[in-house]
């Protein structure tokens, strides 16, 4: 996964656990693609200060993922749900009952994933 | 939801964010149903100390849920997956194509839930 995409995903899941100040600057870099110099000027802190804050946020977010694995788990669930979607379309064209059994199996896998 | 069930669920999701000491005592109360006095004796702390620690853990876990809503979201996903499971069984008995369309819709709802 691209670094920015990964950062965005981690932020989606755990961003609420950062401080408002961290969130503001992190969004400027990751979502609005502002340069460190631009943010430094806007915030009245050094370029190095912005750099350190982003690095610290990345670490905080990765630490949460290492403990909770939510990004990984949600990605797996999404993948299984997409598989069900595609199997329903395939079934509409083929009426192959094996596809229905496979859909039932996959829904069971989702329940397992979500069950803890 | 019963208090103990709720505590167990929150712990499943966010327990990894507690300290090892907190986890140990929290499990003794919530999963092993030990009394405060038993734990106080085992840990060499006061009964009140155990009581305060549990209360603090409950607050930490509820705060994470308030920010991240994972328990709520996972419950919704699980409910939808169960619905798919039950619709596949119903389809096997009826061959009603509307059920297939409903399954496709529900898988889309799961993807939405997981997409953020």
UniProtKB/TrEMBL annotation, chains A, B:
<dbReference type="InterPro" id="IPR007394">
    <property type="entry name" value="UPF0122"/>
</dbReference>
<comment type="function">
    <text>Might take part in the signal recognition particle (SRP) pathway. This is inferred from the conservation of its genetic proximity to ftsY/ffh. May be a regulatory protein.</text>
</comment>
<dbReference type="Pfam" id="PF04297">
    <property type="entry name" value="UPF0122"/>
</dbReference>
<dbReference type="InterPro" id="IPR054831">
    <property type="entry name" value="UPF0122_fam_protein"/>
</dbReference>
<dbReference type="InterPro" id="IPR013324">
    <property type="entry name" value="RNA_pol_sigma_r3/r4-like"/>
</dbReference>
<protein>
    <recommendedName>
        <fullName>UPF0122 protein IO98_16600</fullName>
    </recommendedName>
</protein>
<dbReference type="InterPro" id="IPR036388">
    <property type="entry name" value="WH-like_DNA-bd_sf"/>
</dbReference>
<comment type="similarity">
    <text>Belongs to the UPF0122 family.</text>
</comment>
